Amino acid sequence: MPSAPALTLPKPGLPGPVRAVLALLPPGGLLHSVKTVAAGLLALWIALWVGLPMPFWAMTTAFIITNPLAGATRSRAVYRLGGTVIGGAVAVLLVPMLVDWPELLSLALALWLGGALAVSLLDRSPRSYVLMLAGYTSTLIAFPAVDRPEAIFDLATARVTEIVLGITCSTLVHSLFWPRSVASALGPRLRGWLADARAWQADIGRGADPAALTRDRRRLAVDAIECAQLALHVPYDTSRWREVTGVLQALLRRMLLLLPVLSGLADRRMALRGASGAWAGLLEESARLREDQAGALLAECEGLLRALEHPAASPPIALDEPRGAIAFHADPGTALLSGLSVTVATLIGCALWIGTGWVDGGTAVAMTGVFCCLFAALDNPVPSILRFGVALMCGIPLSGFYLFAVLPGVDGFVPLALLLSFPLLVIGVLLVHPRWGALGQAMIIGTCSGLAIQESFSADFAHFLNGNLAQVVAIALAAGTTAAMRTIGQDMAVARLVRRMRREVAELAARGPRAGASPFAVLGRATDRLVQVTQRLGSLPLAGDAPEGEAGLKEVRVVMNVAMIQALRATAAPVLDAALEQVLAGIAGHYSELRADPAREAELLRAIDVALALTLDLAPPRATGIAGLNEVPPEQGRPGLVALRRNLFPAAPAFAPGDPA
Amino acid sequence: MIAEYAIGGVYVAAAPVEACMALIVTLLLHRLLVAGRVYRWVWHPMLFDTALFILAWAVLAAALPALLPGTAA
């Protein structure tokens, strides 16, 4: 397997200033830039050679889907293809039908754009790009073409063809030449994660101060979810990991399960310090169960990682467990609001366009939609829209310089490519930079679309000015509408997340897992919300008992406890069954109310104690690995109740079996 | 004159149509080779797959017009 050559660029022979500049570059940036620019120019060359009508679309695509990880480039290529085909089809369907009623056409396209964005936001995986792109591809094709509906089919075909061309060139270049696989990025992260989890386990065993671990364990949750997101690219990867995605998913599921298990263990160990009597025995049992589970899970994780990294090793467990994919948090309310705001922005744009009769208004409206969509997943998209817009604008003077000063004297593709490659290579080095990458990309996209390289070169200054003015209007419109309609602050976002998290626990307790739904869906969403909260609180100091501070991990643990109690209910005698029903109803009540009600809290604690007293003569639990959540053995119900009591009422006095009052 | 296929009355250039068919053939072959664990012996799987696609495309482009007389001009 060829790997990227190590870029130890500062060679001793180079003069000092050059070495200083090279040392500033992000590592791997130059190679990635060369690959991306080569792909773009290859696409441009083929497009010009075949004589496609808008060659710059092909070139821009090569810059849009580029990613340092070959697998991510390839998955984006597939999603972009799907989105473009759907979007083109919708444009071809709508425009001829409604071309005589511009208001109706605007409304239909705006609704389609908003609907597509809203649905795409429900999926926080990279897959959501398909539908988002389908939405704004339709408007990009349809709005500039409303005055010539007969050309819509040709226009849509041209766009699809050129995007296929750009995708193909980009995929080929990034897969064939020194591909950097997702596996090469994901492998070390997984190994590091497991080492951290082992360290945490050892800390708990030694009895380290649990409060000191809070931040570390949140970091583990964030890393686990980021790995799960990165793993979505693996089926498209250039490494052999794409053939063993089942093993990878099994590993990720165990990682998610380890978090509540380890944090529960830490909690039980801490509670054991001051406990005595029957309560201490129950706590000890719960701690031992968690300890065994943690050990089993960690061993399985390490075996699975070995199986991933060494083709000869076989996975340590049979992979016939239910294949529930890891689910991510989705917020229908925000998604709907985002969809609505892009619809409104598009309609305002259309009103301006139709009202003023501005020729390039169509471009402005289409670009408004693009700007609204690109950053709709953020809490506050406005700064990103503005930054992206300004970076795009920065590309315009460059394209103007080329269009009116350089290119008139150029004849043939080779000089054109040489002249273009210089600035593109320089900006392209930025692409791998975590902070400046997106802005470099925006600047290149701005340059490319400003150039709009036609087969027959035309430097039409009025057209150039109008097209770019359209972008300014689009940025202002997108930022204004978004700011007015759907920007929410960090604290609001956290409050929403906590509310949804609580509601899901309440539903789980009230109804049990929905038929056919994997418990991993609930666990995945709960962990993902914990991560979302953590990322938003990232810079803020964590207040120890603040509801947002401790929220999350506790809910993730309660999700597991509820699953254990429900498993016990399935086999319980009528008396115990009734007691457990009381407990579950109490949890549902606890989590559906926003403010704690002391009377109901006391009632829930009493219900837990009654149920716990009834379970005292049950058999002790056996430890299980992943089955700990998938098919919980009923005898884990008692430790489940103990854990629940600890999670919900850490300050309550010790449980005494004598008086289940 | 560019060779074209008539699909449902619409004339489409032959090269993309054959490329799509070649892509499907390549994906099937790829699945087979994965099942046979052949890729252990391959130095650069991506290059291998690309070469496989080019071969499939060339074979289809050479063979199909002969198999379908009258459709390709």
Automatic annotation (TrEMBL), chain A:
Keywords: Cell membrane, Membrane, Transmembrane, Transmembrane helix, Transport. The keyword Transmembrane applies. Its main location: membrane. The keyword Plastid does not apply. GO terms for molecular function: transmembrane transporter activity. Pfam families: FUSC. It is a multi-pass membrane protein. It is found in: Cell membrane. GO terms for cellular component: plasma membrane. It comes from the Bacteria. InterPro entries: PHBA_efflux_AaeB/fusaric-R (IPR006726). The chain crosses the membrane at residues 42-65, 77-98, 104-122, 129-146, 158-179, 335-355, 361-378, 385-407, 413-432. PANTHER family: MULTIDRUG RESISTANCE PROTEIN MDTO, P-HYDROXYBENZOIC ACID EFFLUX PUMP SUBUNIT-RELATED. This is FUSC family protein. It comes from Novosphingobium flavum. The lineage of its organism: Bacteria, Pseudomonadati, Pseudomonadota, Alphaproteobacteria, Sphingomonadales.
From TrEMBL, chain B:
The chain crosses the membrane at residues 6-29, 41-68. The lineage of its organism: Bacteria, Pseudomonadati, Pseudomonadota, Alphaproteobacteria, Sphingomonadales. This is DUF1656 domain-containing protein. Keywords: Cell membrane, Membrane, Transmembrane, Transmembrane helix. It comes from the Bacteria. InterPro entries: DUF1656 (IPR012451). It comes from Novosphingobium flavum.
